[in-house]
UniProtKB/TrEMBL annotation:
<keyword id="KW-0328">Glycosyltransferase</keyword>
<dbReference type="GO" id="GO:0005980">
    <property type="term" value="P:glycogen catabolic process"/>
</dbReference>
<keyword id="KW-0808">Transferase</keyword>
<dbReference type="GO" id="GO:0005737">
    <property type="term" value="C:cytoplasm"/>
</dbReference>
<dbReference type="Pfam" id="PF00343">
    <property type="entry name" value="Phosphorylase"/>
</dbReference>
<comment type="function">
    <text>Phosphorylase is an important allosteric enzyme in carbohydrate metabolism. Enzymes from different sources differ in their regulatory mechanisms and in their natural substrates. However, all known phosphorylases share catalytic and structural properties.</text>
</comment>
<comment type="function">
    <text>Allosteric enzyme that catalyzes the rate-limiting step in glycogen catabolism, the phosphorolytic cleavage of glycogen to produce glucose-1-phosphate, and plays a central role in maintaining cellular and organismal glucose homeostasis.</text>
</comment>
<dbReference type="InterPro" id="IPR035090">
    <property type="entry name" value="Pyridoxal_P_attach_site"/>
</dbReference>
<dbReference type="InterPro" id="IPR000811">
    <property type="entry name" value="Glyco_trans_35"/>
</dbReference>
<dbReference type="GO" id="GO:0008184">
    <property type="term" value="F:glycogen phosphorylase activity"/>
</dbReference>
<feature type="modified residue" description="N6-(pyridoxal phosphate)lysine">
    <location>
        <position position="647"/>
    </location>
</feature>
<dbReference type="GO" id="GO:0030170">
    <property type="term" value="F:pyridoxal phosphate binding"/>
</dbReference>
<keyword id="KW-0119">Carbohydrate metabolism</keyword>
<keyword id="KW-0663">Pyridoxal phosphate</keyword>
<comment type="similarity">
    <text>Belongs to the glycogen phosphorylase family.</text>
</comment>
<keyword id="KW-0021">Allosteric enzyme</keyword>
<protein>
    <recommendedName>
        <fullName>Alpha-1,4 glucan phosphorylase</fullName>
        <ecNumber>2.4.1.1</ecNumber>
    </recommendedName>
</protein>
């Protein structure tokens, strides 16, 4: 949009006055943030309205992304960038004596997601808007987002994230578009007098779902998509008469918290309720919209609507759409089923069995009696149809209801026309191993869509210094099309470019060093290698392997004080799930090891270890630009894709990584020599599984380096881990090291050595860094979302 500095200043000052009855001199930072957000909202509202009208009129097919998580982070700068007014507003504010970043920093992160899966959903929302793809988000407006992590005495402490306490300037509450969702009670089928069986209900619990719309502003275009988040409320007619406090409390709980504790029955029940809540509300809204604005027969739904099931949490989309079509629109079963399968598509995000949802049949039956009937019928009809075609074995292994449980992945695959994995390796594993039986029955449904990242956030917003160097080297086209960075390759021998890349990186490292000084009280040398592992804490991601290597370096320095090691700062950021004991023990160990090393005068600046608390999108925006090295060291086959690996690549960090998830594609794109590969590959891992011949204890007994490092966990060398040390030690020795940490240790140390050698040659290193940036184009989520739009949803970009 077009905006002059003068106009902006007027708008801003006026808004402060109309909203808060205050002038700039007296306004506090929160008031400035609120006024600024409100002005920005007014700037995009017109575009939003016009785009909505265009969508109504053109009646083009739209896609709906159902996801129980979104992780957008802060929105102010992203909206400014996408509107094309970031510089104007920054300068306008500067004229008024206000620094944009000091205000933008105050916005709470919108963190209604746990990690990669939620962040991917937000990257997709950003990319869809930016490429003109009509994609609507659909999720839950949790009052409390992902917990805030504090580190106290080395331990993770979880604090609630009341992100809405200052209001949310971006959302629009749409009370007129609320829907009721019902739970429990009894249902039976009754002849309606025409011979048709219709469901009758008694004693149902009713909940009102109120939508809050948040616009997703496209990058320098005319598209504004919508992310709809549902809040649970008591229906108005029950408000006054209802004195049942328990009911009120339960209704509020429904959209209160992201991932409530699911270790007990009540917690799990609430989760299932949440899933049905946003699925039912979202489908009701889209069907109503279809009927009232598209005005075509409901049987044509699949020509206008595509619904994406993001992981299994929204799998109830399948029976809920069936319910609506059959019960509310009188469509015959067969026809309704064909429509449903055409409308639905599904992404699998993990092969870890604990993440593949299953619900006890009894729970589904009592909470969602009509939905349960429909699932039973889907299962029954499918079994009858397939038995003669594929035989009992395949039918049984792929049934939706088995062993008293409802299998949500099975429901998602069976009820949709497309199942995709999120990186080549992951999609192959789905076909060949994890979902092989489904693949035998429905081969045409399986496909791959390698993940991507919303590159504008991770370069133009998070790394302005690098962005400027890129502009000046290859022009600005890359800002719209990341593939344009390929032009950078032509500059790989250009000393001036390499020096400028180094200077940008150094500035970013200084910024992070300042942050670390201020928040951790640790002084780090910006000339050291900044070696970063940021992601959720999980055993399969193997933060522990990183820790063992750090301990090796530490002992090397202790043994030979004048050893030639290049100074390194190891930086961690990771939240552990509140109930994940082992992961929390690793956090404690990292913090105690950090204390030990950082305070050891023998070590000096050679080695520092920093744990940055409360890793989230905003922290990532400071940390990742400053990284020289990104650690992507999960056990091969376990990380479906990973996406931080792509952010590191874009910011010129070199990856040390296993052949896992999207690392493989990054390695192929960056080229040999520009990526430090190590460890078992997935075939070797599966070979161990087949033979059952891995023996971690032997490695501990036979490798003196490993022996000494592991002993440090139990012999008092690392202080204050008398409970955690033995737990970690035993996980590796007694419980046979589930994720082959010890098996990969030597090769990891070798790769780390190679990395250090290359870093000492600054020119060679920077060239390798440049090659990473130049070849990152494929990993833009603009590419990914176009693939979904073309091959799965069949929706068109706005021209
Ligand atoms: C994940 C995968 O673990 C991760 O590898 C992948 O990049 C993302 C997005 O596809 O999905 N699956 C999952 O359940 N979470 C992830 O981050 N939480």
């Amino acid at each position: 949009m077009k905006l002059t500095k003068k106009q902006f200043k007027q708008d801003f000052e006026k808004r402060l006055s109309t909203k808060f009855a205050i002038d700039i001199e007296k306004a506090g930072p929160q008031e400035k943030l609120a006024a600024l957000s409100s002005v920005v909202k007014a700037y995009y509202s017109k575009i939003w309205q016009e785009d909505n009208e265009y969508k109504y009129e053109s009646k083009k097919k739209q896609a709906y992304y159902f996801s129980v998580e979104f992780l957008p982070g802060k929105m102010l700068k992203s909206n400014l960038l996408n509107l094309g007014i970031l510089d104007t507003v920054r300068e306008g504010l500067a004229d008024l004596g206000i620094e944009l970043d000091s205000i933008a920093r105050l916005e709470p992160d919108m963190a209604i997601g746990n990690g990669g899966l939620g962040r991917l959903a937000s990257c997709f929302m950003d990319s869809a808007a930016s490429t003109g793809i009509p994609l609507n988000g659909n999720g839950i407006r949790y009052s409390y987002g992902l917990f805030k992590q504090k580190i106290v005495d080395g331990y993770q402490v979880e604090l609630p994230d009341a992100w809405l306490s200052n209001g949310n300037p971006w959302e629009v509450r749409r009370s007129d578009k609320a829907f009721e969702v019902t739970f429990g009670g009894e249902v039976w089928l009754e002849d309606d007098g025409t011979g048709k069986l219709r469901p009758k209900y008694r004693n149902q619990e009713r909940v009102l779902a109120v939508p809050y719309d948040t616009p997703m502003v496209g990058f320098e275009n005319t598209t504004v998509n919508n992310m709809c988040l549902w809040k649970s409320e008591v229906p108005k007619d029950l408000d006054l008469q209802f004195q049942n406090l328990d009911y009120m409390r339960q209704t509020a709980m429904l959209s209160a918290e992201l991932y409530p504790d699911n270790s007990n029955y009540d917690g799990r029940l609430l989760r299932l309720k949440q899933e049905y809540f946003f699925v039912s509300a979202g489908l009701q809204r889209l069907i109503k919209h279809y009927v009232s604005t598209i005005q075509r027969p409901i049987t044509h739904l699949a020509d206008y609507v595509s619904v994406h099931i993001n992981d299994t949490h929204p799998a109830l989309c399948v029976p809920e759409l069936m319910r609506i079509l059959i019960d509310e629109y009188d469509i015959a079963w067969e026809r309704a089923w064909n429509i449903t399968v055409k409308v639905m598509s599904y992404t699998n995000h993990t092969i870890l069995s604990e993440a593949l949802e299953k619900w006890p049949e009894e729970m589904v039956k009592s909470l969602l009696p009509r939905i349960y009937q429909i699932i039973l019928e889907i299962d029954r009809r499918r079994t009858a149809e397939l038995l003669p075609k594929v035989g009992a074995k395949l039918v049984h292994s792929t049934r939706i209801i088995k062993d008293g449980q409802v299998h949500m992945a099975n429901l998602s695959i069976i009820g949709s026309h497309s199942t995709n994995g999120v990186a080549k390796l992951h999609s192959d594993l789905l076909k060949d191993v994890e979902l092989h039986d489904f693949y035998l029955i429905y081969p045409e449904r399986f496909n791959n869509k390698t993940n991507g990242i919303a590159d504008r956030r991770w370069s133009q917003i998070a790394n302005e210094r690098l962005s400027t160097v890129l502009d000046e080297t290859v022009g600005k086209a890359w800002r719209h099309n990341l593939n344009e960075l390929k032009l950078l390759e032509a500059h790989k021998n250009d000393t001036n470019t390499l020096e400028r890349l180094q200077a940008a990186k150094f500035d970013d490292k200084l910024r992070l060093a300042d942050y670390i000084k201020e928040n951790n009280g640790i002084t780090v040398d910006p000339n050291a290698i900044f070696d970063v592992q940021v992601k959720r804490l999980h055993a399969y991601k193997r933060q522990l392997l990183n820790v063992l290597h750090i301990l090796k370096l530490y002992f090397d320095i202790k043994d030979q004080p004048d050893i030639d090691v290049y100074p390194r700062v190891f930086i961690f950021g990771a939240k552990a799930a509140p109930g994940y004991h082992y992961a929390k023990s690793i956090i404690k160990a990292i913090n105690e090891i950090a204390n030990m090393i950082n305070n050891d005068p023998d070590v000096g600046n050679k080695l520092k270890v920093v744990f940055i608390a409360n890793y989230n999108v905003s922290k990532a925006e400071i940390i990742i630009p400053a990284a020289n090295v990104g650690e992507q060291i999960s056990l091969a086959s376990k990380e479906a894709s990973g996406t931080s690996n792509m952010k590191f690549m874009l910011n010129g960090a070199l990856t040390i990584g296993t052949l896992d998830g999207a690392n493989i594609e990054i390695f192929e794109a960056a080229g040999k020599g520009n990526f430090f590969k190590f460890g078992l590959d997935k075939d070797e891992v599966y070979e161990y599984y087949r033979n059952g011949n891995y023996n971690a204890r032997d490695i501990y007994e036979q490798n003196p380096v490993v022996h000494r490092i592991l002993d440090a966990f139990v012999d008092g060398t690392i202080p204050n881990i008398s409970a955690e040390g033995p737990e970690i030690f035993e996980s590796l020795t007694t419980y046979n090291d589930e994720y082959f940490v010890l098996r990969d240790f030597n090769d990891y140390v070798r790769a780390q050595k190679d990395l250090e050698t290359l870093y000492k040659d600054r020119t060679a290193w920077t060239k390798a860094s440049l090659m990473n940036i130049a070849n990152v184009g494929k990993f833009s989520s603009d590419r990914t979302i176009k693939e979904y739009a073309d091959a799965i949803w069949h929706v068109e970009e706005k021209k």
